[in-house]
Fold this protein.
Amino acid sequence: MRLDGRCAVLTGAGTEVGRAVAAEAARLGMRLILVDRVAERLDVVRAHLPSGSDAEALVADIAHPIGRRAVHAAVARRFGHLHLLVSHADFVVAGPLRELDDEDIAAAIQINLTAPTMLVRELIDLMRAAAPARVAVVGSVLGEIGQPMLSAYTAAKCGLRGLTSALRRELAPFGVGVTYVAARPVSTDVGAVHQRHTMVSSSWTCDPVRLARRLMSAVVHDKDVAYERSGDRFLALVERLWPGLIDWSIVRRGEVGPERQDVSAR
């Protein structure tokens, strides 16, 4: 997929991953609408884009209908169509399921799965009008390799993986591709929660810049699935075929405590 001069929407643009993806997309010559809930974070993103970048900031929360409609309106007004949607949202609730309250579980599903699904629905017609176009969804390798203390998060990310498979087959006849990127926990605050409260070690993290380059490369080459680290594809296969090996590995690393912490990186 050629990207120079094409238009894109990036959600979660104010996070470290979002900033890295925005910079990479701008470097490739894309015209951007950067979406985040916090205006100050968008100011930081735009300040760090390459000189001459074409980027508009939009303060909107895609977890709410009014935010999703605002994204649609901005794209329709500025471009009239959409070549690329990069959907990035991450809300981590770590801890034993028995200690998570209703609000924790609902937020994990709403932010990580429901809102991205509804945003894609909102923008499908604009993407069909731009065909060839592509949806790129940032998921998590933890949605394929279940980890203790991340049950609600894993459930949402598993759903996101299934969503992209179904959407790819649904939208292919209309010239819209779908890419799923299985990211490791990034080396930011969200990654730190994974490390402190789960079995995920500090060595099992990714760098936002590396992730951004892998994502945009997958878009350029029209890949359906991409892993931030190539070895994670093998681990996901082991989880499907020989889950007992993953169980053994987790038990071997020891127990974790019942403490819990919530961090939003929407």
Notes: The first strand starts at residue 7 and ends at 11. Residues 255-266 have pLDDT under 50 and may be disordered. The chain has nine helices and nine strands.
